[in-house]
Design a protein that fits this description.
Layout: E1 8-18, E2 21-27, E3 39-42, E4 45-53, E5 56-61, H1 63-68, E6 79-84, E7 103-112, E8 117-122, E9 136-139, E10 142-150, E11 153-158, H2 160-165, E12 176-181, H3 183-195
Antiparallel strand pairs: 1-2, 1-6, 2-5, 3-4, 3-6, 4-5, 7-8, 7-12, 8-11, 9-10, 9-12, 10-11
């Protein structure tokens, strides 16, 4: 369980392919505090730590994860948003995030808002994945509030702190990002379909 409040970013320092899996080694400021089997969200994808060495650690992504997220596009040197699992005694500053990416979206517009930015994303409307005005959405692991919700698209407003301390400063038109839709919204959408049959 995560909150969507990114702790830091890390650089990918090595990628190894093993059949349909990819092993990503990252250099992170809190690597020395991790342990084997610990869950860490990478651009919003929950992955398990499988190896540790100094300020580096390794996680493995299977084929299903690689095709449903943007992790399969990662290259050495890329910056990844990181969040460790939420502690039971911690404040929930973002919203409930499972670390299970639903699908990807593509950035179609970046608008300068005189000190902040608006990012617009388009996604394929499938299943129960919808956004609502002022609802929650997770983009590359960042908990955000939806504005300008439309069918298959939405915008989010990014303040300077988020822009500087996450990989949002690398997102431009054409960049593919990971989306996790609000779990409460998905359950409501599913129930509405069930009762409207």
């Amino acid at each position: 369980m995560f909150s969507g409040i990114v702790e830091c970013t890390a650089r990918v320092v090595e990628i190894r392919t093993d059949r349909q899996n990819k092993h990503f080694t990252l250099e992170a400021p809190f690597a020395d505090q991790l342990k084997i089997d610990q869950s860490v969200a990478h651009n919003g994808v929950c992955l398990t730590v499988v190896a540790l060495e100094g300020n580096r650690y390794t996680v493995t992504a299977m084929h299903e994860t690689l095709i449903k997220s943007n992790l399969g596009e990662l290259q050495v040197g890329d910056e990844v948003n990181l969040e460790r699992s939420m502690r039971p005694d911690a404040l929930l500053d973002g919203h409930i995030v499972q670390g299970h990416v639903d699908q990807t979206a593509v950035c179609v517009d970046v608008e300068d808002a005189d000190g902040s930015w608006y990012f617009k994303f388009e996604y394929e409307q499938t299943g129960d994945n919808v956004t609502v005005e002022k609802g929650s959405i997770t983009v590359n692991g960042v908990s955000l509030t939806v504005c300008d919700s439309c069918e298959g698209s939405f915008r989010v407003a990014i303040i300077p702190y988020t822009y500087e301390h996450t990989n949002f400063h690398n997102i431009k038109v054409g960049t593919r990002v990971n989306l996790e839709f609000d779990i409460v919204g998905k359950y409501i959408a599913r129930l509405m379909k069930h009762y409207n049959k």
